[in-house]
Amino acid sequence: MIDKNSENDAKFMRLALKEAEKGIGLTSPNPTVGCIIVKKGKIIGRGYHRRAGGPHAEIEAIRSAKGKPLKGATIYITLEPCSTYGKTPPCVEAIIKSEMARVVYGVKDPDFRHQDKAKRLLKKQGIKVTTEILSEDCQRLIRPFAKRVQTGLPWVIVKAGMSLDGRLTRPGKEGQWITNDQSLKDVQRLRAEVDAIIVGAGTLKKDDPSLTIRETKLLKKRNKLPKRVVLTRKSKLSKASKIFTDQFKDNTLIYSNKSLKAVLKDLAKRHQCNSVMIEGGGRLIGDAFKRELVDELCLYYAPIICGENCKPLADAALNASKRLSEISLKAFGDNYRIRGLVAKE
Amino acid sequence: MIDKNSENDAKFMRLALKEAEKGIGLTSPNPTVGCIIVKKGKIIGRGYHRRAGGPHAEIEAIRSAKGKPLKGATIYITLEPCSTYGKTPPCVEAIIKSEMARVVYGVKDPDFRHQDKAKRLLKKQGIKVTTEILSEDCQRLIRPFAKRVQTGLPWVIVKAGMSLDGRLTRPGKEGQWITNDQSLKDVQRLRAEVDAIIVGAGTLKKDDPSLTIRETKLLKKRNKLPKRVVLTRKSKLSKASKIFTDQFKDNTLIYSNKSLKAVLKDLAKRHQCNSVMIEGGGRLIGDAFKRELVDELCLYYAPIICGENCKPLADAALNASKRLSEISLKAFGDNYRIRGLVAKE
User: Is the ipTM of this complex over 0.85?
Assistant: First the structure.
């Protein structure tokens, strides 16, 4: 008997999504994927993709079943299973071999070369295939991967801590910090979800940031830290900067006199970045908006007004305003975070 | 038997606050006040101050009891009752005459000349007096009145509709509107709470605003509209502007070459304004911040980024950032309103 009803499908896919989320920030250049195996209404396997080169989520789930017979089972995967030999044998082969009866996945492979291939191969073997279950959530999960394979550019998040009047700096000698500890902690969580953090030379000079993940809880399961990337027009950067001298200095990249787009392309291609986060300053952020390179915006507002002698968020003249969609709001003490996607024209 | 316990006191004071709220925006130069009369645990009278020159809340409440004997009753008032002859005889006199046994009020009269006078007079007559019940809420209600009588300046709210990067205008030919209909509707409610709306000559020229209350529900019980005030450096203003030509044109004031502080003083003194709202533009708002004249901030954010060629919220260099307290956040569709008090140095 095959388990088949849409309510159960959504329920198990939600659990597969939960599995996938464990891998966010760890899998590039691969997508984050989660998987649940169900037999007679009972979960007998679960897994997620932990790192590039490691077993895919489907294989993790099959292994977690510890030899229990999978014949007749249903496998829930957030993403269409792979059908080609990469660093590992294709999951489609493993699914067929295990004699599972049904495959449910959330979204198609965004790589046009492989799209729907798994579906055809599985159906040919008499395996039932259901797709588009919680597809929006599953799509959101692979957004960075999908953008890279489809455009050659990483998913670009702009993050900034700012005043209510949109200023990145404070007047006079008030110091560099605008947002509160809770916001800064959230930034750590964001950093743990991306493959690179980009700043301009001005920010390096002004703030001398570490651009690292300091929360030990976030560090625990990571096998790598996000790249730290500095963009500069002149070649002179202070050699004493933290990112050039600390224990992670080999993780720092410098790009001189390159356009932001060229840098992003290189990060996607050579450094396998699915996602990057631009952390300022205003010139770099303004440039990113001007050149339509921003996918997502994450702004932390502190309850202060700084005035017009302080640096603005987007220090560039724009031909048209950029509109956000899928906006979410969260309070961090007396700070507010507004997050949303930048609508494409 | 006198009703006396702190739980009931808070309960009835809350109802008195509810009464008072009905008068917000209608009573200047008087404060908004609400009143409840309770006998043997039952409410037998209620009222609020409806307009300057009209009966005070206490008298409204006494009248609403319609001759029921008030002897032994407790009267709850959000503000210390008046003890001097103004446009009406003092409420203290009416309370004594009615033989009520107990007076509970939220906060003292902020006018130092009258403070605690009612308390003394009532006690002298053997009437029990309890004060400081829900005093924070009661104080909030008379904030504008208290500021005027104590400083000679009105309570100043800065309101702005802006982009996420703190811009009051949009790029190129995108038009003047930034915020959505729900935000604009809320601005109408705000206008109905203040005694004057102030704009700079630039805003008049650029937007030609009506600065009126259009919602009929808000207009219904009003006996006057907020004054419309234009500040100008040069004397030339377009005579065709709506505020000079529409049916409320007599309600418009022009101040030429006066400092903002001088204008505020004049509005408080000559035009009996307890509260005013500055609606822009950035120069005027920047000036208000620079001169420490802002009490409250009400910002509506639309989910767009406009860039640095657009006008900033606070178009003035500030020596120090201004910090907000008592911050509240509200969503209006995809717009957000952040409201808070400007901390005094």
Answer: yes
